[in-house]
Amino acid sequence: MIGPMTSAAATRTSEQTWTIAQVAEEFGVTHRTVRHYEDLGLISPERRGTQRVYRRRDRTRLGLILRGKRLGFPLEEIRTIIDLFDAPRGRRTQLEYVLGQIDERRADLDQRLKDVQDAIAELGEFERRCREDLDRLA
Amino acid sequence: MIGPMTSAAATRTSEQTWTIAQVAEEFGVTHRTVRHYEDLGLISPERRGTQRVYRRRDRTRLGLILRGKRLGFPLEEIRTIIDLFDAPRGRRTQLEYVLGQIDERRADLDQRLKDVQDAIAELGEFERRCREDLDRLA
DNA sequence: CTTGACGTTGACGTAAACGTAAAGCATGAT
DNA sequence: ATCATGCTTTACGTTTACGTCAACGTCAAG
Asked: Which residues constitute the signal peptide according to the record (chains A, B) (predicted)?
């Protein structure tokens, strides 16, 4: 079967769902990787019987996970970060805790931003020198 | 002994050098880490007899390595990148190869830049919602 | 000349992040 | 009914990036 699972006449108004093969394909990872993230508690798809059923929420989290990986964060840290987005924010103390965590994360990301910008700048400078060398050769 | 090695009356005009303990301390890593990078060929300090002698060049490379790590690049890839900076650029074909590599690297870094910017933006949006919640609680 | 303090080379250990079978269900198609 | 597909768990293997001894060299200070 091709395309999202719609279980025929059943849950049409309900949310769209995907199989593990579909999300793995979509995000360019293996099913093993997806299940590994579940083992670590980064995603928790429902079960239709024994099979995993992925919803939009799971795909969103998977996207956050992979972006976090591209930025070099370890999976455990990524888990605490994306859990933060779903954390309860009812009480004032909880909200203040969350806001504190946000500041920590931002400091981390600011460092990454500086790193990337510096790297890009140096690469540009290096390219400029290379082009100079190339011109001199002409 | 404290401070950089100056070998008393000898090489004063020569370059300043450091011991492994000094560079490790300076960059906040262990000596084991520094030697590991050497094993992988990311740095290659000279030897004064049996001991390693680090110069400015080695410290520069070490800085590049650690920044690459913060950006999530594997050490092997980092090696190819920083080797690029020291690559011979005498012939035109070599220069064109280097310029091609630069473009690949830049594409990678551009993706990282977008990732960081997106993450920071989402974090800001999330913080805004949290502050709204906090205001409503007041 | 012996003691530290620091440096060196193995060599094995480990944690993270999966890879890779192996072997068993479940379900639609023939 | 069986057969192929796809999903499942279990479990051991692998790679990366070091940690952690162990055992030895070396050199200035007491």
From this structure: none
- In the predicted model, what is the mean pLDDT of chain A? 90
Phi and psi at B89, nearest 5°, equal -125, 40
Residue nearest to nucleotide C5 (CA to C1'): B1
**How many residues belong to chain A?**
138
Share of chain B above pLDDT 70, in %: 90
The partner residue sitting opposite A92, judged by closest CB among B72, B73, B134, is B134
**Cβ-Cβ contacts under 8 Å for A18 (sequence gap 6 or more):** A4, A5, A26, A53, A54, A55, A59
State yes or no: pLDDT of B3 exceeds 80. no
Predicted confidence at residue B138, as pLDDT, reads: 78
The answer to whether strand D lies under 7 Å from the CB of residue B48 is no
Alpha-carbon distances of A35 from A13, A64, A110, A128, B125, rounded to whole Å:
28, 16, 31, 45, 30
Q: And the tokens for B36?
A: 């590991």
> Between the CA of B19 and the C1' of D8, what is the distance in angstroms?
55
Helix ranges (DSSP H) in A5-91: 20-27, 31-39, 56-70, 75-85
> What's the confidence (pLDDT) of residue B65?
98
Q: Which pLDDT score, from 0 to 100, does residue A15 have? A: 81
Of B113, B105, B110, B66, which is closest to residue B85 (Cα–Cα)?
A: B105
User: CB distance B95–A69 less than 8 Å?
Assistant: no
* A99 touches B132 (CB < 8 A): no
Token pair of B57 as six digits: 């060049």
Measured between alpha carbons, how far is B19 from B73 in angstroms, rounded to an integer?
Answer: 27
Q: Which residue has the higher pLDDT, B68 or B14?
A: B68
- Other CB atoms within 10 Å distance of the CB of residue B45: 23
